[in-house]
Description:
Blueprint: H1 3-7, E1 11-13, E2 25-29, E3 33-39, E4 45-47, H2 49-65, E5 72-75, H3 82-107, H4 129-135, E6 139-150, H5 152-163, E7 171-181, E8 187-193, H6 203-213
Parallel strand pairs: 2-5, 2-6, 3-6
Antiparallel strand pairs: 1-8, 3-4, 6-7, 7-8
Helix pairs in contact: 2-6
Amino acid sequence: MSSAAVAQERSAVREGFAFPTDRQVTIAVFRPDVHVGTLTTGGVDEPNADWTATARGLIAEQMKANDKISGAKVIFPEDPEGEDGAYLAEYRALFSAVAQSIQVHKLFVGQRLPTKKKDFDWTLGDGTARIGKMAGADYALFFFTHDAYGSSGRKTAQIFGAMFGVAIAPGIHVGYAGLVDLKTGDVIWFNADPQMGGDVRTPEGATKRVGQLLAGLPGRTVPVVAAK
């Protein structure tokens, strides 16, 4: 594991945040942003549409199985079409950009911005209010995962590389999730991991991945796993 990975924290929450106690809020969980493919010997990330479709379906199922959040009702709206769909897509892209900034300048301790050292203070802006009206929700939960499994050639290169002291990464397994207040656009909670576990092409792996992504989400009730 690299020193950068060791130095990286995994999650942050806006100071003092708590869901309202006088009413039940609604959280919209939109379609997860999932990418799965192969990492070649030369380091090329080749998308695999079948793997991506399988993983997206399995992760969506697990998200629905993890819908217990204290004080909140969780809904899973379909992506809107037309102008509303384009508007949501713009904010997905904006959230992705903000998520990258959070990872680099907040969670990655060595590169923290002077103004962001103590506070967790990122926002998408109050344009998110339109998304709240579309979905009938107070908050939105966004997911992103990217996996690229090493090709057989890359695995062979790993073995030979190890013999000569050359480290070759086996693949790419990153993911993050964030909770956004749709009235203000403020990012309330964020969780990321550059070395996620679980093969998202399998039900077991998708279960593990969603559990990792939701770790630390305010109000989350962790499902009880029956003993075998």
